[in-house]
């Protein structure tokens, strides 16, 4: 049985508190923590150089760290503005290039807002734009890393579970990414029982097959929300939900092996380790 993978998004405060200054140190640091996944942040733009990215990728391979990246927040697939659409394509292509340098097999991305469009029209436009991205990526030989379509954190964004499923049906290059903190925020709460999480897994498996959930890409953290959705990510020590225990319980009981990336604010590695330890406790029980 393959085991679930756990790791942080970006570098935690404790990494810098120990005197580290470069992400090149992260793979060894994570391995020393017993963690085995790392999502490198490109959210503010793809600014990493090739030499640095390749060095980080080699370090991750050496220390057994599964690499993914998070594409820029500026992606907007449902835009009606052609300049923004061109920039969006460029963000994808640059992310694919960086991911290959880093040895990352997955690229997390948000589809973006719906603007003034009706939701069904926004989704159709996003699918069209994404198909154009995939065609261009194939033409340029930028294949390999999967594009992980993330669930939305705000009601005015694309990314319901049904929407990411529909998008993933476009190509085998696309995989679902479930951010349970986001789903919790847009639902205004919930996810207190293992079955609450299980319904999401079941919905994806029904439409995309069992393999889609067997090694699902997951984001998780505590989160504060408003009526419009997410407001701010927090850590497990803060008084916000959702609880991680029911999620890990479902994963362990169903013998799934997802990659769980923790997006806690500043304590992402510590909280990833908390989930990992609980997971292994359940496997032993």
Key descriptive features of the protein:
single chain; 285 residues; eight-stranded parallel β-sheet; two-stranded antiparallel sheet; 10 strands
Describe the structure.
- With 285 residues, this protein is an alpha/beta fold.
- It is built from eleven helices and ten strands.
- An eight-stranded parallel beta sheet has the order 1-10-7-6-5-4-3-2. A two-stranded antiparallel sheet has the order 8-9.
- Strand 3 (66-70), helix 4 (82-102) and strand 4 form a beta-alpha-beta unit.
- Helix 3 (50-62) crosses helix 4 and helix 10 (245-253) packs across helix 11.
- 47% of the residues are buried.
- The mean pLDDT is 97.
Kindly summarize this structure in a few lines:
The protein is of the alpha/beta class. The protein is 46% helix and 17% strand.
Mean pLDDT, rounded to whole units?
97
Which residues sit in consecutive blocks of at least 5 with pLDDT less than 50?
Answer: none
Q: List the secondary-structure elements in sequence, H or E.
A: EHHEHEHEHEHEHHHEEEHEH
Largest sheet: 8 strands, parallel
Q: In one word, what is the shape?
A: globular
Task: Give the helix/strand layout.
Elements: E1 5-8, H1 13-17, H2 26-33, E2 37-41, H3 50-62, E3 66-70, H4 82-102, E4 106-109, H5 119-139, E5 146-150, H6 161-168, E6 174-179, H7 180-187, H8 194-208, H9 210-214, E7 217-220, E8 222-226, E9 229-234, H10 245-253, E10 259-262, H11 268-284
Parallel strand pairs: 1-10, 2-3, 3-4, 4-5, 5-6, 6-7, 7-10
Antiparallel strand pairs: 8-9
